[in-house]
Design brief:
- The strands form 3 sheets. This protein has a 6-stranded mixed sheet, sandwiched between helices. Strands 7-8 form a two-stranded antiparallel ribbon.
- Strand 3, helix 7 and strand 4 form a beta-alpha-beta unit.
- It has 3 domains: 125 residues, no CATH class; 112 residues, Rossmann fold, CATH 3.40.50.720; 190 residues, no CATH class.
- It is flat.
- The protein has 457 residues and is an alpha/beta fold.
Length: 457
């Protein structure tokens, strides 16, 4: 589905919530000041107010306040808000104690500030939640779902979500499960019509698990979330992550942990680290650009379309490492050892990964990430998507300059299907287990062993 503010996929709501919390923190501090002193007492309180405002945003990220509320119990969300704000004031008190400045500020003012802030934060979020549920009933801020199922739990889910869109999920198509082959034909027919979905819910008893593997294969070209909802209260005991949605449990069998708050964190990581790296490598990039320009005819940069996040085409940059040539019938021939198309400078910059440096510009543009699955040529994607199961799932996130597959040595020419399968396995492992710490480890691993590789031709 297209990404927009009203589709529920835009980052703008998260940015608004951060600004919302900053405003609450500063506004409630001012209100508490007037309640305590009857007037504004001076500038010395501003520094404390700014520190607490920053702490509450950090605590909210840590406590999961900025994760989507869609389908989650309201009590759980309010508990997270309360915890985040309480932790921010605990952090503030620790700061005052460590700097021995507790005597400079009124304890009663801080107490008023905390009580007012927590109350206002919960109250305004409750109001926003209520307004959003009404908004969703008109079909906005909605995720479109393909539902497949049978049995008691399936009927309950239909009744819940067909009549009430307050959770933000709209049943776009509902298929009654009639067996593996019939269900697969119905799904393929819907996809052939150009139907697009944000999620697929499999509301089936565990006894019908035999449909999972062929259905995952049928949906292998899609980037939608796939959830298994067999209707057992003890699902959290199973290995898959269990997510409560509208009072029902789902097994997230193909869902990345990268929610909107994680994407913001990853984007900040890309901008901050990418800017620093680009600053340091600028002299190297100028030297490589000069070497490419003066040793062979043609442009310095090689630009090519690749699949980005959610399979959308993006243009990425590399230093040109080959002689200018044209492929027949739009085919893309992988570079191989001793390839006559590769220039002398090109062989060196490919072997040392210097040809990838312009992609830090793509990172700052938002087309790529520092860490992620390496982008393959469009023709290669078309070729491998039917040969490697779940191949297209690697496009659920932005492509990266480096990735888990690269630090494990799976880079360079993929001249066998086994090599591509192992690379894709690493990509999917990265997506399904993403964390900021994992990104940092991959970046460090790339620095120590990712630049020089004999498999890169």
């Amino acid at each position: 589905m297209p990404s927009s503010l009203l589709s529920g996929k835009s980052r703008l709501p998260l940015i608004c919530l951060v600004v919302f919390d900053l405003t609450i923190a500063l506004g409630c501090a001012e209100l508490a000041e007037y309640l305590r002193f009857g007037s504004h007492v001076g500038k010395h309180n501003f520094s404390l107010m700014y520190i607490q405002a920053l702490l509450v945003v950090v605590a909210s990220f840590i406590c999961g306040v900025y994760q989507p509320w869609r389908g989650r119990p309201l009590f759980e969300r309010f508990s997270q808000v309360s915890l985040a704000w309480s932790l921010s004031f605990v952090g503030l008190i620790v700061y005052l104690a460590s700097t021995k400045t507790t005597g400079n500020f009124s304890r009663l003012w801080v107490g008023y500030w905390m009580l007012i802030s927590v109350t206002v934060a919960i109250g305004l979020r409750g109001t926003l939640y209520y307004a959003l549920t009404k908004f969703r009933q008109y079909g906005r801020n909605t995720r479109h779902v393909l539902v497949i199922g049978k049995g008691h739990n399936f009927q309950n889910i239909k009744r819940t979500f067909e009549n009430d869109n307050a959770y933000g999920f709209r049943m776009a198509n509902i298929l009654d499960y009639q067996g593996v082959s019939d269900t697969l034909e119905e799904v393929k027919a819907l996809l052939a019509q150009g139907k697009q979905y944000d999620e697929c819910w499999l509301c089936l008893p565990l006894a019908n698990h035999d449909v999972l593997k062929p259905l995952l294969f049928a949906l292998r070209h899609q980037t939608l979330n796939i959830r298994f909802m067999p209707g057992l209260a003890d699902l959290p005991l199973l290995n898959y992550k269990a997510t409560p949605i509208g009072g029902f449990y789902s097994l997230d069998i193909s869902c990345s942990p990268m929610d909107e708050s994680s994407r913001i964190i990853k984007r900040l990581e890309d901008v901050v680290i990418g800017s620093v790296i680009l600053l340091f490598i600028s002299p190297i990039m100028l030297a490589v650009a000069a070497a490419v320009k003066f040793t062979s005819k043609g442009p310095v940069l090689f630009k090519q379309k690749r699949h980005g996040a959610n399979g959308q085409p993006v243009e990425i940059y590399k230093f040109r490492s080959m002689k200018v040539h044209e492929e027949k019938d739009g085919q893309v021939t992988q570079a191989m050892q001793g390839d006559s198309r590769i220039t002398k400078v090109g062989a060196f910059i490919r072997r040392t990964s210097l040809d990838e440096l312009p992609q830090f510009i793509n990172v700052l543009q938002g087309r790529m990430s520092i860490v992620g699955p390496r982008p393959h040529a469009l023709a290669h994607n078309e070729y491998y998507k039917d040969l490697v199961q779940s191949y297209m799932k690697r496009h659920k996130v932005k492509p990266g300059i480096t990735g888990l597959a690269q630090v494990r040595g799976f880079r360079g020419e993929t001249d066998t299907l086994d090599k591509m399968e192992r690379r894709v396995e690493c990509d999917l492992e990265y997506i399904n287990n993403w964390s900021l710490w994992q990104d940092i480890k991959i970046i460090i691993g790339t620095v120590f062993k990712g630049f020089m590789n004999p498999n890169a031709y």
